[in-house]
Amino acid sequence: xxxxxxxxxxxxxxxxxxxxxxxxxxxxxxxxxxxxxxxxxxxxxxxxxxxxxxxxxxxxxxxxxxxxxxxxxxxxxxxxxxxxxxxxxxxxxxxxxxxxxxxxxxxxxxxxxxxxxxxxxxxxxxxxxxxxxxxxxxxxxxxxxxxxxxxxxxxxxxxxxxxxxxxxxxxxxxxxxxxxxxxxxxxxxxxxxxxxxxxxxxxxxxxxxxxxxxxxxxxxxxxxxxxxxxxxxxxxxxxxxxxxxxxxxxxxxx
Amino acid sequence: xxxxxxxxxxxxxxxxxxxxxxxxxxxxxxxxxxxxxxxxxxxxxxxxxxxxxxxxxxxxxxxxxxxxxxxxxxxxxxxxxxxxxxxxxxxxxxxxxxxxxxxxxxxxxxxxxxxxxxxxxxxxxxxxxxxxxxxxxxxxxxxxxxxxxxxxxxxxxxxxxxxxxxxxxxxxxxxxxxxxxxxxxxxxxxxxxxxxxxxxxxxxxxxxxxxxxxxxxxxxxxxxxxxxxxxxxxxxxxxxxxxxxxxxxxxxxx
DNA sequence: CGCTTAATTGAAATGGTTCAATGCCTGTGG
DNA sequence: CCACAGGCATTGAACCATTTCAATTAAGCG
Lengths: 254, 254
Fold this sequence. Notes:
The first copy, chain A, is α+β, with helices and mostly antiparallel strands. The first copy, chain A, is built from seven helices and ten strands. In chain A, a hairpin with a 5-residue loop joins strand 4 and strand 5. Chain A starts with 24 loop residues before the first helix and ends in a 7-residue tail after the last helix. Residues 1-12 of chain A have low confidence and may be disordered.
């Protein structure tokens, strides 16, 4: 228990409760030592080996050998899961926000085919897979929660397939922004005036939407010109949500 | 138990053992009344409500209300899971071959956002979700098998994302053909001379690869001209597997 | 046998890429 | 405090992979 591999970079004294905790499955399952909702309640956290980690922005922080036996969850910051192509291109499969598993597949298997890069500085937490499995196997309602997480991830992947296969650059970019803002809102990370910390570079958006960063720049400029949002200094402020949603095309099975 | 909803179309006297049985998870879990490997062995099949169904080619055969409580598995024939877009386009998310769940998500939830169409005539089988869950929840090794199915499905979705986001028409089409043939080979559906029943129309390939059927026609002609395969009369014969694999680009995380 | 669906082919149009040049900002080192 | 390098964003022009449009033939199907 408590396998203390250091995933990468330096350690860090992380504050106990992090932005991701409010929506983190590990927290609601009372399996996280730090993020427990109710510190008085009976907790299973001490039965699950766990550890914290930290990665600087732009660093790759999940490697084959490191996730072999560990299930990582993001506590704060953004990450991106991607694959590299022989020609030097890459495709981002998903952005990972605070309170999310690096990948739901890693809950059940250490086999990994994606790279994960920290977009901003990232605090994460790793759980011993065997311990974790044992804890949820016993409790059906825990299992239902994990199934839900998994289904959501699959649904998001399917939505991306539709975007990449059948929708224009404008629609893809608008969808991505809407999806991210919606998820951030669920985590209470949108401030009352509608602005959000938005660490993505244009090349991230390009890699996620299957476009070039040159074209992303052009589309974003056009969106700004139309007054849909403001985006500068790593802060995004939606100005005309309805128009943005229109640009994303009809909601195709949200 | 045994909820006897008729999913659609007419009933049919299906032969007990079908092409999909050899690789069907329900069969290896001994949960299928018909497809059991070992008829003498102790089986849990009578604990799980189940029924057969049949759908004619080109029919939609999975609707919201119908999968609410049922987990469908294809026994013979091909199906396609897709979503419709407001502009009349559609995107096929996956082809479903004999021995596969309609969608792994349906194992855990009846909420559905895709349509499923029979590509060729399809025999399928439905299992009561509650019964099914109860049976696998108790047995960890069953659960591992289901997790594996789920991970495979997700991995295939991720591969499609990469194809649609970053690869050319040729690469997408070649990848699709290779993937299908590989899966068919695993089911022993490739005859010794290398030919397979291949019920897809060009518009299926187009809808799956995010292209137009016009362009699919051009690429397929070019492939044929180069002698990579023959394809006519719903039969595909790979002639130059190595060259086809080259056209698909490097294997990006198979 | 006629009617609809599927496949083929060519020509024109286009959404997005590629290439290239410029400016900006940030961090770094002298 | 300035010079310089590297990453990031912007803009315009040329290019190209794929779409769109259109016309023709071939293939199922009742």
